[in-house]
């Protein structure tokens, strides 16, 4: 009897470990197979390293230039994170204003699409003139590239509030502010999280592109500059290493948004409750 | 006893509809001239084919919609002024999924500006009335359909409304749960004496619950019949087997068939 | 070269695409209907006077005379010309001596066969009374440079970038016009003319005068083409030389043709640019050896400089990197 709790904890631990393994193992195996195929394929076909280096060469380039990559990743991460934060805050704010009145939405919503179609390569130099090249200008690039999905998803979320609940709030004479804070925004939260998930990856892309035109002025050059330098000097292995670093940054941001999102939403989302009922039974 | 009975305020409001018409944008007539007078403390069922406009009438009584012509008065005021506390129970529970049961039940008081400890105390009391005191700290995702509906009921009762409007509230539940909730609702009505209007398309439910049934025609809703149901005040499951109940059901059935013709 | 090889992130995709079709051939030297060899020439920028001689050779029949049917592929930002030529997507391409040696060090074997610019048109332009020399440029203010370029590394080594703010070169001149203490890399035949038209008076300093002078506008072929079709390459070089001579004598006709392909540049600018580059193309040496000439000394110098700058680890053998025809 006495060891029952520990054996329960033990089996719980095993179950958690097993479920974690069943989640992480397949993509890991897929990755290993992919890298092996790449390595062997490139060697077998004799593809020139300046066109497509094998993963082993990319890895040794990453080791050789580890300092550059890490410093670059840090610069890029800081900038992307700030641009992403701008997108989150201003995107949600814009969506709230847009959906505050039908007239405003009709008048302005179509123009937010401009943000999605604006050629960032054309805008970035102008941003550099306005803000001065560096952190701020590049963050604004990241913001411009990543804000649209936040606006679009949030607007969708704000629109899809349960009409019965809107009636309920009206019945008790709730103020606009109370309705927004207690009903509309929480209802839109799943959509906001979806928007932020997309914005996370886009903010990294926006930062990389922005760096080429408006970055570089202080601190270590970001990954965009590393990519460009590597391309210029035909260091294709370093180029791939930098691209993978950037991809990793994007994934990291996506993962963080995902984790925070499911933590916040999980409490009221039925699918997240399965684990607990399993334990109870 | 309970504080409500010591309240000097009239527990129930009367409802008067005079020639109420509602025409939607595009010319669809939802309600075509309804004149009804409901006395304080009455339990009235609105019966009619689905989509006939009875829910629209209920929304106008709640002050959530305005008649195109005619007048609605609750306790001698326009319901849109919200001077008489009215509560509304929807077809589904419509709880805020991110809030606990307790805070869901306390929501109306929160919106009316009651402070936290007071509104929670009142909400706890109402939850006890619907036998959900133990579930106060759970969230809606952890509740069964019947439990959610009881939270919804508690939320409606928390402001001590003088008029309670219910729009096919138990339609989505299984029969057993539904019957149980019907009994609970009857009890609450008897304890509180609140005026209640219950919209349904179930004849047996209407006959079991209400002291009076108003049958509406299909759209645009007009009153086909308005009958008192003299089935006594103590209603239990046994009632469903009696001849009087069967007769009442039959009568309403005929009215409804006429309405749908 | 500067913006001509300006690489955007798209270059990554370009590389990937090339990797996928690295073995496809552009059909070099395959006969066309009238017995002429069909070949492709990949430019590293849009049609501008720096390619005038090739358009002249096409318009005035020099290519035809040498039995060539040349398709000119205009380039743009990020076109990976070296990879295209090494991979066989184009028979001929335009690059620079520094890039050729770098490419060879990485295993992309291309050979330079004709050098348009004897003096590199690479330069820094600046404004303001303060600036009288290249050294003044790097004394303070902001300088826009493309990262990773051999000549920006050269300038960094020579002057140090500690006193200036280095920002990425964006391909335009907006900031140059908008800001005061601002200098940027340029191509003498292009940006200085553009900003003069806007009323600015830039001071232009050639990197060549500072001691870094790789051949620019170099026609390249792949090593394989050079080894198997030397005769075809020779014909191309001869025709190009004739075309360039014609262009130096009278650029108007070829300029007219290019102006139709590049509507962003007006006729006046075409004429001015053609005039500005003349001295960089036609020198005492070319008067003696012919246009496009190259010497081993110059190639060895640049190879040595690339090693010093750390662009390549080991100096490639320059004998294989170029061919005098």
Question: Your description of this structure?
Answer:
The complex is a heterotrimer of chains A (281), B (261) and C (325). Chain A is an all-alpha fold and 281 residues long. Chain A is 83% helix and 0% strand. In chain A, α8 (176-214) runs parallel beside α9 (223-232). The longest helix of chain A is centred in the first third of the chain and has 42 residues, at 4-45. The longest helix of chain B has 18 residues, at 175-192. Chain B is globular, with a radius of gyration of 18 Å. Chain C has two domains: 4-118 and 214-321, D-Maltodextrin-Binding Protein, domain 2 (3-Layer(aba) Sandwich); 122-210, Periplasmic binding protein-like II (D-Maltodextrin-Binding Protein, domain 2, 3-Layer(aba) Sandwich), CATH 3.40.190.10. In chain C, the strands form two sheets. In chain C, strands 1, 2, 3, 4, 5 and 11 form a six-stranded mixed β-sheet that branches. In chain C, strands 8-7-9-6-10 form a five-stranded mixed β-sheet, with no helix packed on it. In chain C, α2 packs across α11 (230-249) and α2 (52-59) packs across α12. Classes of the chains: A mainly alpha (281), B alpha/beta (261), C alpha/beta (325). Chains in contact: A-B, A-C. At the A-C interface, α5, α8, α9 and α10 of A face α1, α4, β8 and α8 of C.
